[in-house]
# Entry
Amino acid sequence: MIFNAVMRVGYFPDLWKVSNIIMIHKPGKPLHEITSYRPISLLPIMSKLLERSLLHRMINVINEKSIIPEHQFGFREEHATVEQVHRVCRVIRASLEKKEYCSSVFLDIQQAFDRVWHKGLLYKIKSILPHTFYGILKSYLSSRIFQVTEGDCTSNFYEISAGVPQGSVLGPILYTLYTYDLPLSPGVTVATFADDTALLTSNKCPIKASRILQNSLNKLEKWLAKWRIAVSASKSVHITFTLRKEDCSPVSLNGSQLPHQHTVRYLGMHLDRRLTWRKHIQTKRDEINLKYKGLYWLLGRNSKLSLDNKLLIYKTILKPVWTYGIQLWGSACTSNVMVIQRVQNYILKQISNAPWFIKTTEVHEILNMPMVKQEIDSHGANYKLRLSKHPNQLAGQLTIPETVRRLKKRRDIFDD
# Structure
């Protein structure tokens, strides 16, 4: 009855708009600096239940009107980060096949969710959603307050004048609606996952490629200023994907030149200028080794933990580190793939306490653990099947074979 009344009247109860902020200290950071803490926002349970009911109604309208652009993969059902990275890699590979220069920028938006302009958001909601949603969402965003709790101490209440509510159910979709009209430019591929934004363009001339990209950035700059969205130029990355030694001309945003690098981290995956996946695989190897050292007292030869529990720990903590994005980096050359295989060989021998003369293939068979190459083939088959049924047209196009095949190396793990 309360939920129905809220929907009918268009008034979100004030008691459900109180946020309790818990500060989590970041390891290794100084205690006296506010940036050394990660704020976790806790909202009332009743508020989240009502938000979920409202979200269900909003999604139906949003999908019916196709409000969210196809290039936005964040916070959408059946849309994953791997598919968005695959779109980016597809553009890069096409550029490498044609001996072109792919000039790309990966933007870092400052406090994207915390700086959403309420008046601008409500203006867009009023123009794209039915009027019934405008009233309830206006009440939902207004008069929000928060307090900070640290141990037994609690701060005073302070008003929230901007941003979408952190820890809420509606926060992600509201940010997506706020950025739905991101300007597009001809010849420039746009890939967004929430606030992670990438722009790519290709041309045989490195100067012309950057010129096209700069025109798109100039257009984006006006849109960012209009809707009060800040981008950190120093943390953004400009990278040239090419098989040649020359780099594309520098580009700038808001009068600041974007730093040029040879590798970039996008959605948890490291992309190098030739798309060899070497940097990504080496990073994952180091991450696995670091986590294994922390778990050695449980997984080592002297551990009294049962073999089944050791394997369970490996499958739930260590294995997901290197299987993430295997649909893409699985196309790397054999020498790079073997880097991960050697790590798994060592860990499985430690887990099973196998003597040195036992073959690694036998260890895998006894533990019923697939080799890395088998994991690549398995994930590739499932991934191709998922893409063939994907609701997003841009993701579905990833299964279409490319016409230009100059390079001999595999570009996708489901390539023949």
Q: What stands out?
A: The chain is about 45% helix and 15% strand. The mean pLDDT is 92.
